[in-house]
Amino acid sequence: METVFAQSAVAFTAGMILNFMPCVLPVIPFKVQAMLRETTGTTRSRALAAAALLAGSLTFFIVLGTVTAGFGLMWGQQFQHPWFRVLLSIILLAAAIATFTGWSWRLPQLVYRVPMSRHLGAFFTGALAGVLSTPCSGPFLGSVLAFAATRSALETMIMFSAIGAGLACPYLVLLLWPGLLERFSFSSRLAVNFKMALGFILLAGALFFIQGFLPPLLRQTGWMVWALGIGVWLVVIFTGGSRTRLRPVLFLVLAIVVVTGFRDIPLFDGGQGIPWQVYSDHRLEQSVGQPILVEFTADWCINCKAMERTTFKDKKLLDIIGTMGVIPLQVDLTRVDEQRRAIFDRFGGRAIPYIVVLDGKGQLVQHYTGVVGADTLVEVLKSIDG
To answer: How far apart are CA 277 and CA 290, in angstroms?
Structure first.
């Protein structure tokens, strides 16, 4: 049991690190608004809000740990279901509209008679943060999930609870530290602009999770409109007073830049990145004698998309792949079937993005769970060549 508690400490750290992963960006507005609601509250009210947020996070992760232990689900596997991504997009879109307009929905009056009903928002924020964290992976998470896969259902739930506690921890500190919250004010102009920025983050999250169901033209149009919206908002902010007359010219320049940029930049294909080949055991066998780079990815994985736009377009990495004749193979886990899940398990995967580097004999050289930089991959490939 000591080992379980030691791993739980690692799991807590992994949960805290998830707060800095791209996939949790859409939930930041919920957490910030939950904290801002408590800026004028009493110490007791803040403590109850913190407890509600923690309870929401723990509830989700305990359920997830139970299901994982019982059915052997992959981390983030719920995102493979189209209905789940559509529902999440609708929730984020509704939250974005509410943030922009100040509109809020009310639950049936019976709900508000329940003790601590005032903090239901904090509870659901904690649960939603857990949901949105599961397309992510980061440092330590892979080893925690690998360890949990070998333990009992109770021990798995303990470790998943630790992840949930770690994810909620930074916001608990902010809620329980009055001096930090008192710096925020809804009446200030800065707070209004900050709220607008949070609305655009929510809108981006809604568009990201729904884009897989949209045709390419509509998908690109959606992102273009989103970028134009941000641009218009920034122009309005910085051209107040006597500079208002500059707005028509700046709006025209903005439209030209955004439309031209989105026309020339391939946002949703590989561009000039790594020329991935679809993984198959036959292709792996044919590649004997050459180093192999295997990527496990999915359309719903925000970290995977971030790496496609950064790591996998790095010139140094592309050069060494070409020079060494590295074979890049890709396994798409957007929809997990038995065959792809078996490949993922065989390579020791627990969460995505998951990167595996093999030498010319097909032996494992290194593997990475979560976002990894191009320099790291360059160094490990050079070690094979050396």
So the answer is: 15
